[in-house]
Sequence to fold (393 residues):
Amino acid sequence: MHAAPRRHPARFLPALLATATLLTACGGTAEGSSKSDGSAAKVTVTPAAGSKSAGLGSPISVRAAGGKLTSVEVRDDEGAKVDGQLGADGTSWKSAGKVRPKTTYTVKTRAKSTDGKESAATSVFTTEQADKVNKLTNTPGGGQTVGTGMPISVLFDNPIAKDKRAEIEKALKVTTQPKVEGAWGWVKDYSGKDRIDWRPKDYWPAGTKVSVKGALGGINSGTGGGWFARDYNYGFSIGADHKAVIDVPSHTLTMYENGKNVGSVIGSAGSPQDPTRGGVHTVRSKNAAETMDSSTIGHGSEWMLDSKWVTHLTASGTFLHSAPWNKQLGVANSSHGCFGMSTSDAKKVYDFLTIGSTVEVKGTSNPNKTEVGNGLEVWQETWQQWQQRSALR
Fold:
């Protein structure tokens, strides 16, 4: 029986060295993995590699010493690419936004040293969990087609500190085709929550395509508000130009398509004791059938009536709806602030007006201007007044 030939351990040395180099490449200082002679550029990634709870509030940065970066690719744990900008001198890279809570990032870099040596490295780190996350609700929703008076409305779950508003507003971008002038404005929603709306200077042109991007991930909304955990990107379209005008003294509602009168209906607006709110309102929602409850508008338990074809204007209860119980339609204004119609006429109006269409109320005795947050009431203010709501003014 022959003894097995001896193998010299030096034959395994190159493989061991290669493994060590790859591990070094995953460290906080990402050394080039293709060369091990010390002449490769030294690449540093911040936050540091291997971190399981990297702090929030900062962007991802990459620096090269003794050379230049030739490429930087950063992806999150869902595989989404993180955008960033390479510095003019090629020695630095910085992400466009800040790191998000409880997210793992993989940073792959390539560099070339001053004497031409190329290297590659990978750095992985995970950010800490936020104590509180601030979510938001977007109106209109992505993919919707809405009327020419529709604002972009962003409602926050938690409060936004005043000293954080400018940063958040800067992170929100609206692009349109064709180009439309507009501005963001901070609003207190009827619910009491903080909100920011974007309205065009004038009504949207029919057919406009709108894109909204919010690079909010990793931004702190301030004390009590928490961190934003993600970015937002959605779009919607502007449909046909449908508007309505209510003339209170004549008890009529007239519908206009592309500025052309396409028909009128009679009805009953608010009584002298409860006059209908004036100005330009935006249709915020619609409901084919609902119960009119007097307690919701401060009239206790005076009535509970079933109505059809309900078009909602203000959040406080200014509606267009069927009112078959009202015997003074077209004769006198006797409602509690709504504009009531026959059931068939209410359906005509309901079908004609879309979410985002405008309804102008003229000739009312109500002197009070509706607060912008009481629905989507951005047209209650002039363009100059609206611009003052921006945190960037």
